[in-house]
Design a protein that fits this description.
Mean pLDDT: 90
Order of helices and strands: EEHEH
Number of domains: 1
Low-confidence stretches: none
Number of strands: 3
Largest sheet: 3 strands, parallel
Shape: globular
Radius of gyration: 14 Å
Number of helices: 2
Strand order of the largest sheet: 1-2-3
Length: 115
């Protein structure tokens, strides 16, 4: 999307950075360096989902930041003990138990205007 239909920014949470067996698509298939809008990358340090490892968030952020200096990276920790498989909502992958804290950070990013 470009021009007036382009978004003001994007928020990526627990980003699918590695392809899986069933879902073989990931952000590796996207020309991230061409994204020029503000981006917020959000990851949970304890996310054990094999397709969204938190260590990939930093690389994702740096790739997106090359297109826009207003991008941001946020790592979170804590929350409740998982009640779901590692790639599901009721685990660190879904920021289980710290959802309000994560939503507040996302809201703050959305409200912030780029220069």
């Amino acid at each position: 999307m470009t021009g007036t239909s382009a978004p003001d920014g994007i928020v990526l949470t627990s980003s699918l950075t590695r392809p899986g067996v069933v879902n073989t698509e990931s952000l590796q298939d996207v020309a991230l360096e061409n994204i020029s809008v503000r981006a917020l990358v959000v990851a949970h340090r304890d996310d054990t989902c094999a397709f969204t490892p938190p260590e990939d968030a930093r690389t994702l952020f740096h790739t997106l930041k090359s297109g826009n200096r207003h991008s941001d990276l946020r790592f979170f920790n804590g929350g409740f003990a998982p009640l779901d498989e590692s790639c599901e909502a009721l685990a660190a992958h879904g920021f289980f138990g710290i959802e309000p804290k994560v939503v507040k950070a996302i809201g703050k990013f959305v409200r912030r205007r780029s220069d």
